[in-house]
Write a structure and sequence with these properties.
The protein is of the alpha+beta class. It has eleven helices and seven strands. Among the domains are: 11-105, Winged helix-like DNA-binding domain superfamily/Winged helix DNA-binding domain (Arc Repressor Mutant, subunit A, Orthogonal Bundle), CATH 1.10.10; 188-259, Serine Threonine Protein Phosphatase 5, Tetratricopeptide repeat (Alpha Horseshoe).
Length: 259
């Protein structure tokens, strides 16, 4: 697991897999965090990107439209228990609603920062730093689905969609950085991982083709192009975009020259 630099005595809420909390003192796994409702509350706040979550929204999620007689008091009790375990600043707010404290990180949000850092490093010519940031993001959120305990909740589905997008960007950026660093095998692995998730990921196919060429295997690059062409024709009735076709032609010509 990627080491997180905690802010002061801060915490990091983990949304990948079962909800957990990391801190400088150690890790509280799911059952150690609290009851299912306490974990759901923490997950809901973690997935809300720092926005205030109203008490009404919390009640609806925790009790599925059948609230107890004093729902606000029940939510306040859950908040008090989480504060007692993880510190008074882990959750802020009151009657209007709650959010995670400013010193609390979330694995998904921290990964988003790493991906943005990697993309900036790639565009700025710092491929090694970009590859490192990409790898850290993948390690942080690549171990399974976000909020696996909440398979049908809309807010959890949105978090999973964000995770998928971050993983896609991290793989693309990492592959690009690996190519610039002269690491075609790593670029190939990242591109193939992206394609395994989305067989129509044309950007990943372009990176894969370049990785094969960099490894001295242009024939495999041409086969990758054929995989893409066949997939696009079968699924969408389209052909690769011009940049991918141009790359294919360039590889063909170079292969003919070297033959």
């Amino acid at each position: 697991m990627t080491r997180v630099r905690f802010r002061g005595g801060g915490r990091q809420v983990r949304l990948v897999g079962a909800v957990a909390v990391h801190g400088s003192e150690g890790t509280w796994e799911a059952l150690e965090v609290g009851s299912r409702k306490a974990r759901t509350l923490l997950a809901l706040l973690g997935a809300s990107h720092g926005r205030l979550v109203t008490v009404e929204t919390v009640v609806d999620e925790l009790w599925a439209g059948v609230p107890p007689q004093q729902p606000e008091a029940n939510v306040a009790t859950l908040v008090s228990r989480l504060r007692a375990k993880f510190g008074p600043d882990v959750i802020t707010g009151g009657r209007r609603g709650y959010r995670l404290g400013t010193g609390v990180g979330v694995d998904l949000h921290d990964a988003a920062g790493l991906v943005a850092q990697a993309e900036g490093a790639l565009s700025g010519g710092r491929a090694r730093a970009g590859l490192l940031a990409s790898e850290q993001a993948l390690e942080l959120i690549g171990g399974g689905p976000v909020l696996a305990d909440h398979p049908t909740s809309e807010w959890a589905e949105q978090a999973r969609a964000w995770q998928a997008e971050l993983l896609r960007r991290a793989r693309h950026t990492g592959a690009g950085c690996a190519l610039r660093e002269g690491l075609p095998a790593r670029a190939r692995a990242l591109a193939e991982a992206a394609i395994a998730v989305d067989p129509l990921d044309e950007l990943a196919y372009g990176l894969l083709m370049r990785a094969h060429v960099a490894a001295g295997e242009p024939a495999r690059a041409l086969l990758a192009y054929e995989r893409l062409r066949a997939a696009l024709a079968a699924e969408l009735g389209t052909v690769p975009v011009a940049t991918t076709r141009d790359l294919h032609v360039a590889i063909l010509r170079a292969d003919m020259v070297s033959a």
